[in-house]
Design brief:
The chain is α/β, with parallel strands linked by helices. It is 28% helix and 26% strand. The structure holds flavin-adenine dinucleotide. Heterodimer of an alpha and a beta subunit.
């Protein structure tokens, strides 16, 4: 069966959900092999095997950690030349997309970024689905040049474990990283600080605030904390400087797919919906009964978000007490 390279998205070995999504996709195309940039000691083979990886290529050079993306692109190009995989799947993170673009140039291959699905077509080519213009249209493409490279948007599809999960074979791969690739080095990393909330992209509950908050996110944060949720924001709230861009949900922000999404003081612009439309249950709190978000919401509360969220928080806290 043809080999599919899957770049593992991880933080010090803790594999992110995106990797499970990529492996689920890769199994439709062929036999997935994970590409792990990091120390072999940090690799948790069981997590990769669970989603169908048959092999893990471990690339340990310090350049992958200490430099910008060039060493990773070089290493992947070398792996592509050596293993001749049928496709390469990469997470659609800012870094992943830059690595993918460089890899496409180096290998003279076709690339699709921000795909929401990947399948093998009847013609044998890799076919991708993308949501464009804020989710207003869905396009399909087939990659016919070189080794198809695809970046997959996080939270785009449901992960499926491999049955049975076969123990994984890890192989340390050494690639000569050029001096040019080592030239751009990372000199400092600023930790984001532990905000004590789940990661927005992976959270099972997200409470978001928009322009309707008027810049006061206290009620949104308190409600999120009582549910153990992540906090998100609309672009209007981010552009106003009320919340950091890292928490923006939407077309130009993070795509979320939680079990429960609470949109408070958010009108429901198409670009916002593009980042949360696959949420399982949507609750909207808005004082305008005509707000478009109510067209998508499963439950709606028409009213001022502050008293609504404060009352909901108090009610939940009281029931827990
Ligand atoms: P508004 O549209 O102004 O809505 C505010 C809502 O709050 C209104 O419905 C109002 O009735 C309600 N409200 C006001 N006061 C209260 C109150 N006290 N209680 C309850 N409700 C109240 N937007 C994103 O969010 N994410 C993106 O990634 C994104 N990308 C974009 C990319 C492009 C290329 C473009 C052109 C736009 C993008 N936008 C994005 C912007 C998007 O078009 C909207 O402008 C934005 O989503 C509006 O944010 P909002 O709903 O908070 O504000």
């Amino acid at each position: 069966m043809s080999e599919i390279l899957v770049v593992v998205d991880h933080a010090d070995g803790a594999v992110r959900t995106t990797t499970a999504e990529l492996l689920t996709c890769a199994r439709r195309l062929g036999e997935p092999s994970a590409v792990f940039f990091g120390a072999a000691a940090d690799l948790t083979p069981g997590q990769l095997a669970e989603y169908g990886a048959r092999k893990a290529y471990v690339l340990e050079d310090a350049a992958y950690r200490d430099c910008l993306v060039a060493p990773k692109a070089e290493a992947l190009a070398q792996l592509v030349a050596d293993r001749r995989p049928a496709a390469v799947l990469i997470p659609s993170t800012p870094e992943g997309k830059e690595v993918a673009a460089r890899l496409a140039i180096k290998t003279d291959s076709g690339l699709v970024t921000d795909a929401s699905d990947v399948v093998r077509g009847d013609d044998g080519a890799v076919h991708t689905t993308q949501s464009v213009f804020g989710g207003a249209f869905t396009t399909t493409a087939s990659i016919t040049k070189g080794t198809p490279i695809v970046t997959l948007k996080p939270n785009s599809l449901t992960t499926e474990g491999a049955d049975p999960a076969v123990p994984i074979e890890a192989e340390t791969v050494r690639v000569a990283v050029s001096d040019t690739a080592r030239a751009a080095r990372i000199i400092r990393r600023e930790p984001r600080g532990d905000i004590g909330r789940p990661d927005l992209a992976d959270a099972s509950i997200v409470v978001s605030g928009g322009r309707g908050t008027g810049g006061d996110f206290d009620a949104v944060e308190a409600f999120a904390d009582c549910l153990g949720a992540a906090v998100g924001a609309s672009r209007a709230a981010v552009d106003a400087g009320w919340y950091p861009h890292a928490f923006q949900v939407g077309q130009t922000g993070v795509t979320v797919s939680p079990q429960l999404y609470v949109a408070s003081g958010i009108s429901g612009a198409i670009q916002h919906i593009a980042g949360m439309r696959s949420s399982k249950i949507v609750v909207a709190v808005n004082k305008d009964a005509e707000a478009p978000i109510f067209g998508l919401a499963d439950f709606g509360v028409i009213g001022d978000l502050r008293p609504v969220l404060v009352q909901a928080t108090t009610e939940i806290d009281n029931r827990r007490a």
